[in-house]
Amino acid sequence: MEILELLPSSFGYVIFTYFYSWIMLSYLGIKVGAARKKYDVKYPTMYSDKEQVFNCIQRAHQNTLEVYPQWLVFQTIAALVYPTSAAVLGAIWVTSRFSYAWGYYTGDPAKRMKGAYGYIGYFGVIILSIAVALQLLGVL
Q1: Helix/strand/coil (H, E, C) string of the chain?
Q2: Which end of the chain has less neighbouring CB within 10 Å, N or C?
Q3: Is 122 left (phi over 0), alpha (psi -120 to 50) or beta?
Q4: How many angstroms separate the CA atoms of 56 and 116, rounded?
Q5: Rounded CA separation 36/48 (Å)
Q6: How far apart are CA 69 and CA 56, in angstroms?
Q7: Are the CB atoms for 104 and 123 separated by under 8 Å?
């Protein structure tokens, strides 16, 4: 049996969500590279002792990378059974990472909370993943 026969057709939306997340990660990475030049922070130095704004730009990217693997796992599990819901929740999470970063880029770490709505998407795919697990175990 081929993979296209196994997956629901709406899984295509999930694939576009993964692509959207790649765009987001690329954007955040490019912003860190530009900030390295602007604030003269050389590799492999992760943070600046002098430039708070650089540190905020770096943290926005780093924090996203810290949570990204878990999001990918839960996004994929949820999408196997609930592809449309997972795609919507994934798009919410990815979009929130832009909001999070743009708030952080101001140099005021408290403004990163502009992306707090992303928890809807993040916890949403976790809840759907739990539902998938319970269905597999015959509990639901």
Answers
A1: CCHHHHCCCCHHHHHHHHHHHHHHHHHHHHHHHHHHHHHCCCCCCCCCCCCHHHHHHHHHHHHHHHHHHHHHHHHHHHHHHCHHHHHHHHHHHHHHHHHHHHHHCCCCHHHHHHHCCHHHHHHHHHHHHHHHHHHHCCCC
A2: N
A3: alpha
A4: 16
A5: 9
A6: 21
A7: no
* Chain center to CA of 74: 11
pTM, full prediction: 0.94
Least Cα distance to 105 among 40, 38, 23 occurs for 38
d(CA 104, CA 115): 9
Give the pLDDT confidence of 51-65 residue by residue, as tens digits. 999 999 999 999 999
Average pLDDT, the chain: 96
Give 21-54 pLDDT, tens digit per residue.
999 999 999 999 999 999 999 999 999 999 999 9
What are the phi and psi torsion angles at 48 (to 5°)?
-100, 140
